[in-house]
Structure formats: structure tokens, C-alpha cells
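Researcher: Next entry in the queue.
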Amino acid sequence: MDNIEQKTDENEEISLIDLFSVLLKYRKFIVIGSILLIFITSIVYISYVKYKDKVLNYYDIELTIPISNKIKYLNNVVNYDLLNDTVVRFKDLGYIAKLNEKYNVFYYDFNKSNFNQLDYNEFINTKVNSGFYQVKLNSTKSSLIINLRSYSVDNAKKFISEYIQKLNSEYRNYFSIEIENRILLLQEIIDNNNANKEIFAEKHELENLNKDTVTLFIDDFSIFITKNNDILLKFIIIIFASFFIFIFIAFLLNAIQNIKSDKEASAKIKNAWEKGKKLFP
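Model: Structure for this entry, 281 residues:
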């Protein structure tokens, strides 16, 4: 039993030595090849990014938009999940595309002569679905959090500010009618002597909301900006990928050399190659 374990350890040690010897044998090939591939890949990538997005640097911007605490009363005038509706409305691809034409937060080249609306729509769809624009509720559902990746912080602020104004206006027009209908219903309950304290409180709050301007989103949003390091990460991936590609090629070359020096192995390979020429070997 001890002899078997000893032979296994020796085989593993020989295998490791063989692997290391291959790396030493092809060390110049691996190093020089990796450097050349890193250089060529980097040049191609930088040229592609400059052609596609014009600039390399952009910012990750997190905007926190407070939701009015009156939403608990507004929930009673709609028959759908109002909070989730706000998320959906902030993901309107059509309006995102329209606002981007004005503020160009995603840096689309509108000056090119062959502008095509379908291509532009696909550009917006790709940006939104690849993480350049994300919308979610915070853990307490008291604010909307929008993560926006843009080349211009100022344009991103204007983009979101106008979006808030649009949605506030849409909700205001809708709620003014629904609030009035809800107040009439509550008054009917009160007239029939079926009201409790909650009914009176809701009616009072809705009447105050109806007098004031109904605003669901508070325009005084907070913003947190970080510099995106995506380019650096991709360069690191390029370096490691280039290195491992040439290690693989080195082992492949070594295997080919070993096969050539082994007559029996060479004969098997040659025989397999000849059989492979036939359609059905």
C-alpha cells in the first residue's frame, strides 16, 4: 500500500516537473507572444471604443428620488400597485429615447448623415438592457433609486429632472379626477353613518391633497457619483487572457513535438488523418 502511494506521489511530482519544464522551454515565446497580443488587442479595443462611444471615460451616477409620504392615501384612489407603476414609468424606452435626443446622456452621434430611427431605438434598448440605466425602489420603498451611466453628470441631472416633471404632471392630471371620485365615495359612507376614524382621516387628507398640487416625486433628489473603472477591468482581462492563450499554445507545440519524435504516435496520427479524408471512415 505504501509503495502505491509512493509511486503516485512520484508520478505527480514528475507531472509537475514536466509542466514546469514546458513553461521554461517556451518562456520567451510565452512572454513575447503575450506582450504582442496585449498590445494588438489593446489598440483594436481602444480604436473600437473611440469609434463607437467617442470617449473612454464615463461616470456611474446614483440618483435617489424621494417619493411623497402622501402615497399611502393615493394608493386608495387607484386599483394597481402605484409604487411599481412608478418604476415602470421611469423605464419608458420611448421617453428615454426622446430625452436622450435632448440631453444625450448616452452619447449617441446624432450628427452622422445616415441617422436611422430604428438604429437609434436599438442603441437605447441596448444601453438600458446592458446596465447603463437601472431603476428600483429602495428597501423602505420611500425613494426611487436610478443608476445612470453617463459621460456628462450635468446632462444626467437635467435628464432626470425633466423626467420627474413629466411624471409628476401625468400623475397630477390623473389623480385630480380619482381623488374627487374617492372623496365622493367617502362622503357617501359618512352620510350613511358607516364611517370610522380612518374614513374621516382619509377624507381630510385627500381634500388637502386636492387643494394642493399633487406631487408624487420630490424634485430635490440626491446624487452620488463615482468614476467608472470598466476600462481598467477590461485591460486586466486582456492581459490574463493573452498570457493563458500563449501558455496553451506552448503546451500544444510541445505535444506536437513529442508526437513527431514518437514514431508509433506519429503513425497513429497519420493513419487517423488519412482515414479522416474519407466521408465515412
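Model: The longest helix spans residues 153-191.
Researcher: Noted, moving on.
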